[in-house]
């Protein structure tokens, strides 16, 4: 047991060393992998937010027959298994699939499509919950001003923009750490579709645990850095007034 614990600590130490070495040496392969990881996930977050944020607001202000069922399904899809999404996108984009002619399989575009499907329900559900509280507060005001549905949606999204940032960050967090769907539709091709999560999976399979853990620390640092940057730029955390 003592040896096991010492070995695990030694691997963590080696992982930290590998992470520092990769970062400070500006390893070209690492920069390429990090760049692709950010490009795929940020693009997916932007697309999913452009759809999910207005969708969440639209479900708040509109009343229709299957509204409750739609909201329930949307919330349930937050737990959609990524591997199933990857399989579905693979079938659609494969040569025998309906979109095979586009030749998108094993490309960053296929990875973006898979991530959009995975994070869209999450962003839409969180935005719906946020906008619902705002709608209860501004309902009478917006109705009395004669605002159209589009104007109501835009007003609610603008007023709740800081809170809605949480939805986008949640989507980013889930996307940047995704491996199952990305592996299926991207193929983990070196210098083409290899991102941090698939690189970690590859190195772990090869038994290169120190290097895999180093990449893992880089992934954690990247996620934290992006979150801090967005919070800083948006000024979501203001100084407290005592």
Could you characterize the architecture of this molecule?
- This protein is mostly helical and 242 residues long.
- The protein has a single domain (27-234), classed as MetI-like fold (Orthogonal Bundle), CATH 1.10.3720.
- Helix content is 77%, strand content 0%.
- The protein has ten helices and no strands.
- The protein has helices at 2-24, 28-61, 67-76, 82-93, 108-144, 149-159, 161-176, 180-186, 196-205, 209-234.
- α2 crosses α7, α4 crosses α5 (108-144) and α5 (108-144) crosses α6 (149-159).
- The longest helix is centred in the middle third of the chain and has 37 residues, at 108-144.
- The radius of gyration is 21 Å and the shape is globular.
- The N and C termini lie far apart (51 Å).
- The mean pLDDT is 84.
Task: List its salient traits.
mainly alpha, 0% strand
